[in-house]
Amino acid sequence: MAKIRPLSALLSCVVFSSVCASFPTFANPAEFNQCVVQLKQQAKQAGISQQTIDTSVANLKYVPRVIELDRGQPEFTTTFADYLGKRVTESRVNQGRKLLKKHHDLLQQLTKKYGVPGQYIVAFWGLETNFGGYKGKMPILNSLATLACDPRRSKYFTQELMQALKLKEKYHFSDEKMVGSWAGAMGHTQFMPTNYAKYAVDGDGDGIADLWNSTTDALTSAANFLQHLGWKPNERWGREVLLPKPFDFELLGAKHAQPLTDWAKLNITQVSGQRLSTPDMKAALYVPSGHKGPAFLGYDNFNVIMRWNRSTFYAIAVGHLADRINGGVPLAITPPLHQRLSRAQVKQLQQALNDNGFEVGKPDGVLGKNSINGVQAYQRSKGLVADGFPDKATFSALGLAHQ
User: Which Pfam families is this protein grouped with (predicted)?
Assistant: First the structure.
């Protein structure tokens, strides 16, 4: 039987640290109940009322499914074509356009106050919960307690649980009302409790910032959050662009952001073929499905979207969906339907790169920044198109099977 560690020890772990990840998870109700005793003490120290401690905290339940989802990783990587195709659909575009029109007056007010155009607010709403169609059904307090009592990220989720309890008391939310994702995200815009406390706004003036039932509160809160993340008014998120052929992909990614004037000098154009407009702003170049797919320049607001969700796929999807909702057209270059790579294939790729002197870290089956940089460096050394995309030619050069 796994032994429970004191919550004080768990809280000393750094989020995502390898040390925390090595601790055993709670294996039975008795161990979880012991953790709940410690959570009661933490709640008291956080200023939670005794009534809430006796009712909500005392009745917290362990949810094994939460741990399964936290630990579970997909067997296959997701391609950009698959990701975008499932999120920027014609039905979602059409629904977004209807909602942009329906909430026109509110969105205009939000744009004036927070500087965020309505189509972006609606796009975030669409990607987070399909415009409120699915906000999650798991009890937030139980989910957060399960993760708080699990050693892997105990400190972070204990803090989120304490904040959720404070929200419950502040707005008199019932435990049954507080439902959401397995990780504790809530409402139309899927705010974690800490972000809920910091950025949720009572937009409809009823005295409660209710992200579950008030569309006005949810959209206002999204605009407020984006403003605090640094949204720049009167600027786009970025745009699809056309690259000249041949093109040197050495300048890919956020670390190589440079002024639009410099990208224009490299003969990168708008998809219409017109020259890039060249205001005094920086952009970074992304080719999420390799050199055969669409290319994008991401501006400062692209980085803001990334602060909401640290995924280039997500940021491009939000920006493109916002463009489509605002009357824009589909991408000029359709993302190619690449084969999905299994985690085992990615591990083999990473090991092969390490073996060839291109250090990407311990093979984990995840195509992170280090792995992409390693792929790009290897491609360049072999005279391949160095776009950092692990295509069939790269696998073949490494002596690996791509299928």
Answer: PG_binding_1 (PF01471), SLT_2 (PF13406)
